[in-house]
Amino acid sequence: MIIGIDIGGTTTKIGLVEKGRVIARSRIATTGHAGDHAFADALAAEVRGLAERHGATVSAAGIGAPNANQYTGIIEMAPNLPWKHDVPLARMMATRLGVPATLGNDANAAALGEWRYGAGQGYNDLLIVTLGTGVGSGFIVNGRLVLGSHGNAGELGHMTLVMDGRSCTCGRKGCLEAYVSIRGLRQTYAELDGDPAVLQEEGVRCIADAAHRGDAAALQTFRHAVRWLAVGLANAVAVTGPQRIVLFGGIARNGDLLMAPLREHFQEALLNIYMGRVDLTVSALPDDDAAILGAAALTTL
Ligand SMILES: [Zn+2]
Question: What was the pLDDT predicted at 263?
């Protein structure tokens, strides 16, 4: 069996993967450890415990993490992780677990999961976009995951959409992520003078609920997000020409508020040679599974 590990800002999710299915899960906190080595110790202990409880022999470990360089196996100064230095996690985990370990960018890993086991199966040219706290993406082009010269290509979320626009977590302005992530939608709602009580709850579920109650600012928030996302996706299509785009993350699960109008605006935004030729769909995998399956699939790239 293969261990798939998805390292997030607060939680690290672990899955035991057999034949493309997650058969057991566990998790540890990403934060609160005395350092990167203490984190790796805790992670290795959890992995060993999970394997033991299920009588599994682990043959390899795949790890998805923000700012991971797939060529070097190093997490490079990730702003959302507790360690501000380079962490050679692939090597650290291989040593602790005694099996080969592969590290890759988390969005690319999720894309790989969707490609191999989800809505992307059978497509040679695919774009997978995660709409979550940030906007992650992975590009499959000509049947290969695009890694680029630094092992972390495919950052659609940080494509500039608006010149001198909103500040982004990357330090620049006007990135797609600043408009269509959870944070982006919440900012839009606040800028539209939405009801402050709605924003007391985290995430975007609260804005979606308000939209369903007829809240004008909430409806407008989704309308704006749809327009921005349509343009961002159409720009990406012009570069790599995917047959299908798969969206996942909580925001994408708003079918009526997001996906239905998005399909319409997306077709209008497309370069004419792609009109009617790019299919837009939502992931059929549970969010956690795409990331874990994809991390496990990194070991077979
Ligand atoms: Zn950015």
Answer: 95
The residue-averaged pLDDT of 229-245 equals 97
Split into its structural domains, the chain has a count of 2
Q: Whole-angstrom Cα distance, residue 95 to residue 97?
A: 6
Q: How far is the CA of 23 from the centre of ligand 1 (A)?
A: 36
Ligand 1 is an ion; residues with CB less than 5 A from it = 158, 168, 170, 175
CA of 169 from ligand 1 middle (Å) equals 6
> Ligand 1 center to residue 149 CA distance, Å?
20
User: Domain containing 45 — which CATH number?
Assistant: 3.30.420.40
* Mean of pLDDT over the chain: 94
Regarding whether 169 and 76 lie in a shared domain, the answer is no
Residue 116 lies in a domain: no
Q: What is the mean pLDDT of residues 270-289?
A: 90
Instruction: For residue 117, tell me if it sits in a domain.
Output: no
Task: Please indicate, yes or no, whether residues 52 and 128 belong to a single structural domain of this protein.
Answer: no
In angstroms, the CA 214 to CA 293 distance is 38
Find the 131 Cα to ligand 1 centroid distance in Å: 14
Distance of CA 204 to the CA centre of its chain: 16
Domain that holds residue 63: 2-109+289-300
Rg (CA), the chain: 19
Q: What is the pLDDT of residue 250?
A: 83
Residue 287 has pLDDT above 80, yes or no: no
pLDDT tens by residue, 69-98 = 999 999 998 877 889 899 999 999 999 999
Closest CA to 284 of 120, 156, 154: 120
Q: Check whether residue 214 and residue 245 sit in a common domain.
A: yes
CA–centroid distance, 174 to ligand 1, in Å, is: 7
DSSP character string of 95-113: HHHSS-EEEEEHHHHHHHH
For residues 136-154, average pLDDT: 92
Do 145 and 104 share a structural domain?
no
Check whether residue 33 and residue 143 sit in a common domain: no
